Amino acid sequence: MNFLSHFYFDRNTPNANIVLGTILPDLLKNANKSWNVHPEKHIELFQEKGLNTLLKGWNRHLQVDLLFHSSSFFNNKMQELKRLLIPILKDSPVRPSFLAHIGVELLLDHLLIQHQKITINSLYNSLENVKEDDLTRFLLSCNITDTPQFFKFFNSFKSSRYLLSYQKLENISYALQRICMRLWDHPFTEKHTLDLTSVLEFYKNQLEIDFMVIFDEIESRLI
């Protein structure tokens, strides 16, 4: 799941550290793809106040992703979108399965916004309330010593309020293009981009019918 879908499960949580923890694994990967840390395997390092709540959010993220990616809902929706993407990607290096995976996740974020299931600014407000000292100590306990690099990315993430762009469907298409550009040179032509937006518009209407099923299912199974 993507940032906003993770936030959904802790949208009413008053503890800012928990909220940050629920999206921190993805933030770290975006800040530096070589950072591959597993604080959940070293819980003894995160018992102090502030660190334990960040770890609680982190573990919540892992549990939500496990439930989501192992669900029949995700597998079915990904296959449906993949079938629609295959014809428009025949001249592109992008794998339809990869694009379908990320596409379903971003469309879920978009639908949460559209149906007013979350308030994006509430997420950003929580992030602003996280104590820098708590986050720094958490990163150092994960053996991430280049904390300035992370905070440069994190502060930019907060100030840009990029997730607000997910309100418009055409920006979902743009976000997918940017993700693909990290992996492939020139992944899309202008026609690919136009076709992708059309497919997303068509599939969004199908996904919209029962998209809350997966959120209800996961929420009922969270510890």
In total, the number of strands is: 0
Sheet with most strands: none
| SSE-based structural type | mainly alpha
State the separation between the terminal residues, measured CA to CA. Answer: 18 Å
- Strand content of the residues, in percent? under 5%
Number of helices: 11
Q: Which range best describes the helical content: under 10%, 10-25%, 25-40%, 40-55%, 55-70% or over 70%?
A: 55-70%
Taken from the alpha-carbon principal axes, the silhouette is: globular
- Low-pLDDT ranges: none
Overall pLDDT, averaged?
Answer: 96
Q: How would you spell out the order of helices and strands?
A: HHHHHHHHHHH
Give the tally of structural domains.
Answer: 1
Report the C-alpha radius of gyration, rounded: 18 Å
Topology summary:
Blueprint (H helix, E strand, L loop, with lengths): L2 H6 L7 H16 L19 H19 L2 H14 L10 H19 L5 H9 L3 H10 L5 H14 L8 H13 L8 H18 L4 H10 L2
InterPro entries: ACP_PD (IPR007431)
Pfam family, one: ACP_PD
Protein name: Acyl carrier protein phosphodiesterase
